[in-house]
Design brief:
By secondary structure, the protein is an alpha/beta fold. The chain has 9 helices and 14 strands. A hairpin with a 5-residue loop joins strand 12 and strand 13. The N and C termini lie far apart (44 Å).
Length: 301
């Protein structure tokens, strides 16, 4: 594809060659479950040479497809195309419901393409709005894929990742723009042990039902409410999966794991768990990977 001397080939040439070589395999991907893993792109609180790779290999053994950044883009685009041109209630079809587990905690620029709620990764989670042409507020979000994204580690969309392992810092504005709120607006780096919700009257969720059982020390929670209000209720998220109580008198419930719905029922949306520095702490036989799989498949049709 390049008619010239290859002795001084650049990284951009390699990227173009890679895209051409994988075009046929990424244009149509007819499966439902996937895990993102691409060593050419960065990660922050999940070591991509150990933990990310172990996560990817675990899910591959469970029938999930490992997608690099380019394939992830094609997968989300196809999900949106299918969901807006077919009956999404037909669960036998390949894109009636899809999920992507992010084994690296920096979204690549192939799907976090803009710092807006029109980013591909957000549109992938949205409910199809093709029948709401008169809804000016939702029109800019366009068509949606009704897919699920499972995120662990560092603050969602704090960085945008690039092919050369570099990043663009979006800071807290990243999640505000893409998800619609600050995904780590609570008290950071408190490292308090979480309580996993079990569907009680004040829990506003059921993390146990989602498949969580192992506790962790929370570092980047989303502040849901003032706990002294009766009854407390989440401000930004739709379901609380794990939390801890902060403060002595005016207490707040710091939400460490949660689900934000963007699509239909409990299918399309964003799941956030394990808000701590994972680093190389996920081994090949880590029992917590079973919990991660449970979360990804919760309410599977």
């Amino acid at each position: 594809i390049f008619d010239r001397d290859y002795s001084s080939i650049s990284i951009h040439d390699l990227q173009d060659m890679y895209r051409v070589a994988t075009f046929e395999t990424t244009f149509y991907i007819p499966f439902k479950r996937a895990v993102y893993y691409d060593k050419l792109f960065p990660s922050e609180w999940i070591d991509k040479d150990t933990s990310s790779q172990n996560i990817a290999e675990y899910f591959h053994s469970k029938g999930y497809f490992i997608l690099d950044a380019q394939q992830l883009q094609a997968f989300m685009q196809n999900a949106i195309f299918y969901n807006t041109n077919n009956d999404s209630s037909d669960n036998s079809k390949p894109y009636s419901y899809t999920v992507v587990v992010m084994s690296q905690d920096i979204a690549p620029d192939t799907v976090a393409d803009v710092e807006e709620d029109t980013a591909l990764i957000r549109r992938y989670m949205n409910k199809d709005k093709k029948n709401k042409k008169k809804d000016k507020k939702n029109k800019k979000n366009g068509k949606g894929g009704n897919g699920r994204v499972v995120w662990l580690g560092y603050i969602p969309f704090y960085y945008q990742g690039h092919f050369d392992d570099s990043t663009t810092e979006w800071d807290d504005k990243g999640s505000k723009k893409i998800l619609g709120f600050n995904a780590a607006g609570g008290d950071q780096n408190e490292n308090e042990e979480v309580t996993i919700t079990q569907g009680g009257s004040s829990d506003d969720g059921n993390g146990k039902d989602w498949g969580l059982s192992t506790k962790w020390d929370s570092a980047l929670p989303e502040e849901a409410d003032a706990y002294w209000l009766i009854p407390p209720s989440p401000n930004n998220v739709d379901e609380i999966l794990a939390y801890y109580i902060h403060g002595l008198f005016f207490k707040s419930r710091e939400v460490s794991a949660w689900f934000k719905k963007y699509g239909e029922e409990k299918k399309g949306g964003f799941v956030r768990i394990w808000d701590y520095n994972i680093d190389n702490g996920i081994s090949q036989n880590d029992s917590r990977l079973d919990e991660l799989e449970n979360v990804s498949k919760y309410k599977w049709p």
